[in-house]
Design a protein that fits this description.
2 strands, mainly alpha, 2 domains, two-stranded antiparallel ribbon, globular, 372 residues
Length: 372
């Protein structure tokens, strides 16, 4: 099949920026060196671009996992232009199609099933999306956001102003424009591009399917470190309306921390989270699926599968009861004094169920670990 024509502007931008970052930056480092101001400034700009994409483009606008005031939205809009990853409107439209049709090669804009190169960068190098490039029917809600539409209308000007203006401005302030352009301009941009692109490529290849195997998305703590928390991609693809990607306190997700921090000042609000029972049940179900796959290799597979499924059914029933009582307790605490709640039968039942569930989970983990 004949490939669509190349988009020479994209090819030129990606190729030139990469070559400058890979050749000119190391040469400048060896012959001239970069000082702490330039390195710190480049790191700050890299974080600003990355967090504008994850906090703004992705979790705010693409998935509407929370709401933010005009200041936060404006900061993310400028940072997104600085990141040079298309306008909010276009990025969000592509991403919503990706989630709706994930892994479907004929619809998903960056389907991982078309290979690493295609999902990482190849999909942007040819006219694969020509028939729907200006179709924004799936982001009508974003067209009501004045900041989104302002950035979309002035995207080219904002991109040029940030990607040239900020490095040159910092270089003039510091007294070394060339080093600033190379480090804050080119290297920062290349790193910003490819760390984001890794979510479309590596995060669908490398890692664990913790919560679902219905798509190629993976959870990967290493990628989370380089992508501001976006590496917990398997969780994200099954619970895309959650403002968190790393749901545990120890999981590296600075985007989640920033959104939560801003909520204390009402800069962000209406943060959406997935009910605990849905997360716990999805994880247990995947443990069941993986264990059953391994059990097919055992001579007494049918007997072991029946035992495993029985334990799974008991666990699901216990989880349902536990989380139901927990919801009752939370509702009761909102309406009564803590002293009266502590004396209630709901609390006693909750405590009993919690201990029983913990014991059952230990047994379940032990059982499934045998076949992992």
């Amino acid at each position: 099949m004949k490939k669509p024509p190349l988009i020479w502007l994209n090819v030129g931008v990606f190729l030139i920026t990469f070559l400058v970052a890979a050749i000119a930056v190391p040469y400048r480092a060896i012959t001239h060196g970069f000082d702490s101001f330039e390195i710190i400034a480049a790191l700050i700009c890299f974080c600003y671009c990355g967090m504008s994409i994850t906090t703004g483009y992705h979790r705010l606008w693409s998935h509407r996992t929370y709401q933010a005031n005009a200041t936060i939205r404006f900061i993310c809009a400028i940072g997104g232009a600085f990141a040079l990853q298309n306008s909010i409107l276009h990025w969000s439209s592509d991403h919503r199609i990706h989630h709706k049709h994930v892994d479907k090669n004929d619809v998903d804009p960056y389907s991982a099933k078309q290979g690493f190169w295609y999902s990482h960068i190849g999909w942007m190098l040819r006219e694969y999306q020509a028939t729907r490039y200006y179709d924004y029917s799936n982001v009508r809600d974003l067209q009501k956001d004045k900041i989104v539409m302002w950035q979309h209308k002035h995207y080219l000007a904002l991109t040029l102003a940030t990607n040239f203006g900020i490095p040159i401005g910092l270089g003039l302030i510091h007294g070394d424009v060339i080093s600033s352009i190379l480090l804050i301009g080119f290297l920062r941009l290349v790193l910003s591009h490819h760390t984001t692109f890794f979510i479309n490529s590596l995060a669908h290849i490398w890692g664990k399917q913790t919560y679902t195997d219905k798509n190629t998305a993976r959870d990967n703590g290493v990628l989370a470190f380089f992508t501001f928390g976006e590496g917990y991609h398997n969780f994200h693809h099954i619970f895309e309306n959650d403002y968190r990607n790393g749901i545990r306190w120890w999981q590296f997700d600075p985007t989640k921390w920033l959104i939560k921090f801003c909520s204390y000042f009402n800069w962000t609000y209406k943060l959406k989270t997935t009910p605990e029972d849905k997360i716990a049940k999805a994880k247990a179900h995947m443990q069941l699926v993986k264990s059953k796959q391994k059990l097919t290799l055992y001579p007494n597979a049918e007997e072991l599968m029946n035992k495993l499924e029985h334990q799974y059914d008991l666990l699901m029933a216990q989880m349902t009861e536990y989380y139901s009582v927990k919801k009752q307790l939370i509702a009761q605490k909102k309406g009564e004094l803590s002293e009266s709640v502590e004396a209630s039968t709901v609390v006693n039942r909750y405590k009993t169920l919690k201990v029983e569930l913990e014991q059952h989970l230990k047994h379940w983990h032990s059982l499934t670990a045998q076949y992992a």
